[in-house]
Amino acid sequence: MLQQVNGHSSGSGAQGGESLREDLQEFLSGEAPLHQLDDLTKVNPVTLETVLRCLQARYAADTFYTNAGCTLVALNPFKPVPQLYSPALMREYHAAPQPQKLKPHIFTVGEQTYRNVKSLIEPVNQSIIVSGESGAGKTWTSRCLMKFYAVVAASPTSQESYKIAERIEQRILNSNPVMEAFGNACTLRNNNSSRFGKFIQLQLNRAQQMTGAAVQTYLLEKTRVACQASSERNFHIFYQICKGASMDERLQWHLPEGAAFFWLPNPERTLEEDCFEVTREAMLHLGIDTPAQNNIFQVLAGLLHLGNVRFAHSEDEAQPCHLTGDAQCSLKTSALLLQLPEDPLLETLRIRTIRAGRQQQVFQKPCSQAECDTRRDCVAKLVYARLFDWLVSVINSSICADPASWTTFIGLLDVYGFESFPNNSLEQLCINYANEKLQQHFVAHYLRAQQEEYAVEGLEWSFVNYQDNQTCLDLIEGSPISICSLINEECRLNRPSSAAQLQTRIESALAGSPRLGHNKLSREPSFVVLHYAGPVQYHTAGLVEKNKDPVPPELTRLLQQSQDPLLKVLFPADPEEKAQEEPSGQSRAPVLTVVSKFKASLEQLLQVLHCTTPHYIRCIKPNSQGQAHSFLQEEQGDLLKVPRSRPPAATPLDSLQVLSQLEACGLVETIHISAAGFPIRIPHWNFVERYEVLRRICARTSSGPHSPSPAEGHSERSPCTEAATLQAVLQDILHTLPALTQAAATLGDPAKATPAPVHCGRTKVFMTDSMLELLEHRRAQVLEQCARRIQGSWRRHWHRKQERQRRAAVLIQAAIRSWLARKHVQRLHTAATVIKRAWRKWRIGMAFLASKELDGVEEKHFSQVPLPTGSSLLPQTQTSLLAAIIRLWPLGLVLANAAVGVRGFQRKLVVWACLQLPAGNPSSYPVQTAQGQAGVTSIRALPQGSIKFHCRKSPLPYADICPEPSPYSVSGFNQILLERHSLGHG
Ligand SMILES: Nc1ncnc2c1ncn2[C@@H]1O[C@H](COP(=O)(O)OP(=O)(O)OP(=O)(O)O)[C@@H](O)[C@H]1O
Question: Any idea which positions bind ATP (predicted)?
Answer without folding.
Answer: 132-139
